[in-house]
Amino acid sequence: MKTFRFLEDLVRADWSRPSVVTLVLANLVPVFGVLVLGWETFPLLFLFWAENLIIGAFNVLKMFLASPGSVWSWAGKLLYIPFFCCHYGIFTYGHGFFLIWAFGGGMKGDAVWPGPADFWQFAQDYHCGWALLALAVSHAVSFATNYVSSGEYKRAEVTQLMGQPYSRVIVMQITIVAGAMAMDKFHSPPVALLVLVALKIVMDLAGHLRERRKFAGELPPSEGPLD
């Protein structure tokens, strides 16, 4: 049933929409990392994990702008935004910790718990900066053209936005990590990693298109982007 919903979204999608174009292009950037820089499993997973930080940052902006005409909404933001930052931050950190030890060979020296400097060092070591910038631009375009310009922020509710990134992150990462574990046994062949990139593009498109339908009122508010 969900497969048919996704196919329906693809048929109905406006492929000239800037957010769709930039989403696909940004997700194609890692192809350069695989084919030219020789990325294996961990750099690719690290990049996908780092995108969660970008998603969280834009979700905070969405929460801040949501329902600007509601006094109760502004009161709720004082509670929900700090709570989201703490909860999502811990959730994302735990996920990053798992990836480092499961796929990255763990921390160097006697360190066990990675800090912000360690994550930044991983990004530099694997030359992920340019790829992260492309993903950030993609999310910025979607935020500006869909959420702000199209007026989605007027219909958004803070309570719904607070849980929105989790469904995307959990479904996406479980699928990708499961695929990566299988590919890692074959020493990360480039073709397999490119399949992983393609899988992410498809899932990102599914989430993006369903999110647009949800804000347009075509889906029940309770249905998340990847439901």
Question: What's the short version?
Answer:
It is built from 9 helices and no strands.
If you had to describe this structure to a student in words, what would you say it looks like?
The structure is a single chain. The protein is mainly alpha-helical and 227 residues long. Helix content is 77%, strand content 0%. It is built from 9 helices and no strands.
Q: How many DSSP E strands?
A: 0
Net shape: globular
Mean pLDDT: 81
Radius of gyration: 18 Å
Strand content: under 5%
What percentage of residues falls in helices of 4 or more residues? over 70%
Point out poorly predicted stretches.
none
Query: Which series of helices and strands comes N to C?
Result: HHHHHHHHH
Measured distance between first and last alpha carbons: 11 Å
Q: What class would the helix/strand composition place it in?
A: mainly alpha
Q: How is the biggest beta sheet arranged?
A: none
Number of helix segments?
9
Oligomeric status: single chain
